[in-house]
Amino acid sequence: MAKKQREFRILGMTPSEITKEFFSSGTGKVAAALFIVLVVVSIYALIVLPPNFANVWNNPKYWELNPQYAPPAWVDSIIGPVYSPQIYVNDYTFTVQQQSGVTYITVTFSVNYKYDKPWNELFIVINNPAIYSMSQPPVVSITVYRPDGSKITLGPLPINTKVTTLGVAPEVVSQVNLFYNEEYHISSIVPTGSSATPYLFYTVDNGKLVPLKGPYKFVMVFYVFSQNSTVINRNDLEIVLQGQIYGLMGTDNEGHDLWLGLLAGFPIDLAVGLLSALIIVVIAVIIGIVAGFYGGLVDEFLMRLTDFVILLPAFPLLIVFSVLFGWSIWDAVVFLAIVSWGASARIIRAMIMQIRSAQYIESAVIAGASRMWILRNHILPQIIPYILYLLVTNVPGAILTLASINFLGLAGSEYPTWGTLLYYADEFGALTSGYWWWVIPPGLLVAFVAVVFILTAMASEPVVNPRLRYG
């Protein structure tokens, strides 16, 4: 008759019983659901964001078409059509004609303006460097047909850079000022240093500027001269109306899409928390097992070392070293872990000493069992739940510490972590200026991750502490 194989147990429970105990409470179910959300979003972020996203985030040219300090696009769904949205014009006619050695490219599109606050700017983007690098670059003239039957002619403007910004060109400012002077007898309507583009969408009523709502038609004519062999193709051209609202989570002072910044923070903050907690627990387990299992002078030395580590002011030291050595985020993680294992090591040591004094351990020693056999078969199965518990409870502390150090502008503030977003929000007075979308979401996400692991720890307590299971 075959000998029945002994079932693997941890603290007297099989793995299936541990799982059942964890999910028996509502806390365990909620913790598992939230953790799955955290992991799924982190994986999604790693898939959709480029590997060099930190470089992209710190490249101002990448975000230059976005509005600055723009609230999320869904704000208009709540308060009505107040802010003009960001529009990438794709629906336009594109015709090419040649006459007298000049190529005429006519682009026509319409937009329906129904908002209280107009578009900030109009950008013409040419994605072919051969076009805007010509010795005699193309020029563009723009005619804007307004809902009241009036029209404004702008340009001609040279296309000598990748991005041509319509409203800041001196010719355009002068032409818009001239239009308001002729139509409404108002001189210098465009303030010095401001863009003229918003004033394309205003009229004057009783001496006050009011939005002129309705359909607008834009006719752009590009002139490419005969000596130029390269012409503008449809695929070379982008037209962008810069809005006053943007994306799912708005923008910051540089036009960063904050949704992408928040998304990038998921894998970074999760990795930082787990890595820091893992290093802490590994060091604590090694120190605790060696000290508790061997005792004597080894135990005395390791406990004095543990006391020294516990007394170290970890956060102030992290600030000092980050300033002195310009530490990256990963340097901060390793340092934080190295100086934070003391309390966990003491817990592991106390458990090992209690288990070591048990009668069945003494019987195993008398029977000739080796220390490694005792450690593998009697000690580790009993402390594994505590190790996992310590791992879970150390994660939120690591994430909060990282957020705090990033909030001070230290240790890898070039990464778009949630703490970094909060740092720059504070730096530019986001909260006092009413830019709530720059402050509240990253703060809530830091709290969210901490809550996920705190709930996981709470649901794990009945597994770790048998008295909670049996009352």
Automatic annotation (TrEMBL):
Keyword Transmembrane: yes
Alphabetical keyword list: Membrane, Transmembrane, Transmembrane helix, Transport
Family annotation (InterPro entries): MetI-like, MetI-like_sf
Domain ABC transmembrane type-1: from-to ranges: 270-457
Localization, UniProt: Cell membrane; Membrane
PROSITE patterns linked to this entry: ABC_TM1 (PS50928)
Predominant location: membrane
GO BP annotations listed: transmembrane transport
Pfam family, one: BPD_transp_1
Cellular component aspect of the GO annotation: plasma membrane
Protein name per the record: Binding-protein-dependent transport systems inner membrane component
Lineage start: Archaea, Thermoproteota, Thermoprotei, Thermoproteales, Thermoproteaceae
